[in-house]
Amino acid sequence: MKIVLSPWPWYVAGPMIGLVVPLLLLTVGKPFGISSSFRHLCSLALPGSRLHYLNQHDWRRETWNLLFVGGIAIGAALGAQFHSAEPVLLLPDHYSGLSGIVRLFLGGLLVGFGTRYADGCTSGHSIMGISSLNWPSLVATLSFFAGGLLVIHVVPGLWVVGSAP
User: Fold this and answer.
1) What pLDDT, on a 0 to 100 scale, did the predictor assign at position 142?
2) Dihedrals φ, ψ of 39, to 5°?
């Protein structure tokens, strides 16, 4: 049971995540990606939307993706509940109050805009796109890493006092 309860090293977890790509392609013929599920949810919730992006989208065809994302959320909640030595906070203290909510909302908008602008999220481009030898996915992944390194090394004031990067 110790192997299940302790964190797995990158060289085990990474290939296991990588195996999801061919498994999805071989079993159901679908590409791996998470960000598209937001479009499916919006199309489901707003069927009369004036946005062509949403009202012309058939979310029923992508039900598998919604179930996949739901499974990730449920698995994360179960892991946090049963495999954490300390209680997991839904919202850490430094995000409480109005300023924390505004920062989370603005961060979510920026991530959502970036995901739509890049035509996919980091997992979709980095795991699915590169494994499919998709040139734009390689460029997007390199950009994600370059942006992250830039923020970490050039903008050090973004870290919350007392937290580790």
Assistant:
1) 92
2) -65, -40
Closest-CA residue to 79 (of 8, 165, 163, 164): 8
The string of pLDDT tens digits covering residues 100-140 is 888 888 988 888 888 878 878 887 888 888 877 889 889 98
- 10 Å CB burial of residue 45 (0-12, 13-18, 19+) is exposed
Cα–Cα distances in angstroms (integers) from residue 80 to residues 76, 87, 129, in the given order: 6, 8, 30
What are the b/e assignments for 133-146, b being 16+ CB within 10 Å? ebeebeebbeebee
Question: Which residues lie below 8 Å from residue 15, measured CB to CB, with a gap of 6+?
Answer: none
Q: What is the pLDDT of residues 39-90, one digit of tens each?
A: 888 888 888 888 888 888 888 888 888 898 899 889 888 887 777 777 776 6
Query: Contact at 8 Å (CB) between 104 and 95?
Result: yes
Biggest CA–CA distance in the chain, Å, is 52
d(CA 35, CA 110): 13
Residues 165 and 160: their CA atoms lie apart, in Å, by 9
